[in-house]
Amino acid sequence: LILYCLNGPNLNLLGTREPEIYGKETLQDIEKIASDKASELNAKLTFRQSNHEGELVDWIQEARNKASALILNAAAYTHTSIAIHDALKTLEIPIIELHLSNPHSRESFRANSYVAPCANGVIAGFGSAGYSLSVEAAVSLVNKRSI
Ligand code: DQA
């Protein structure tokens, strides 16, 4: 079982980027947390980050025939990208929208998500723990277990 976990712009700076909002762990730390949880559940995680919208679209397209589920923290593109929305619409696998922070408790411009209408569920506000929670949720959805 292969899970894709894709991360959008500025998440490469985790650890030093607004740590009071996003936590002190680096993206590498988070990759380890998520991969460990995946191995525990007999899944394999493909974990990537890009600052470029088109690259994220390419990877979402790639997930169509390579992944059993997609976990997506689209970062700021969550709130702006119709291209990512359209790419997600082409997927038939489960999609989990993920955020470290809770966008709904922040600025009003974070209230809209172009990812949410395409997602089976949303995990937000749990910091780095959200990555292992979303791996669990993804595996559950693939196995059609209720969560
Ligand atoms: C984020 C929330 C977004 O609003 C923001 O633009 C990000 C990170 C999160 O993980 O909390 O870059 O997706």
TrEMBL record:
Subunit annotation: Homododecamer.
Species, as recorded: Hirschia baltica (strain ATCC 49814 / DSM 5838 / IFAM 1418)
Keyword Lyase appears in the UniProt entry: yes
Active-site residue list: 22 (proton acceptor), 99 (proton donor)
Pathway connected to this protein: Metabolic intermediate biosynthesis; chorismate biosynthesis; chorismate from D-erythrose 4-phosphate and phosphoenolpyruvate: step 3/7
Family classification: Belongs to the type-II 3-dehydroquinase family.
Keyword field: Amino-acid biosynthesis, Aromatic amino acid biosynthesis, Lyase
Job of this protein: Catalyzes a trans-dehydration via an enolate intermediate.
Binding site for substrate: 73, 79, 86, 100-101, 110
Protein name (record): 3-dehydroquinate dehydratase
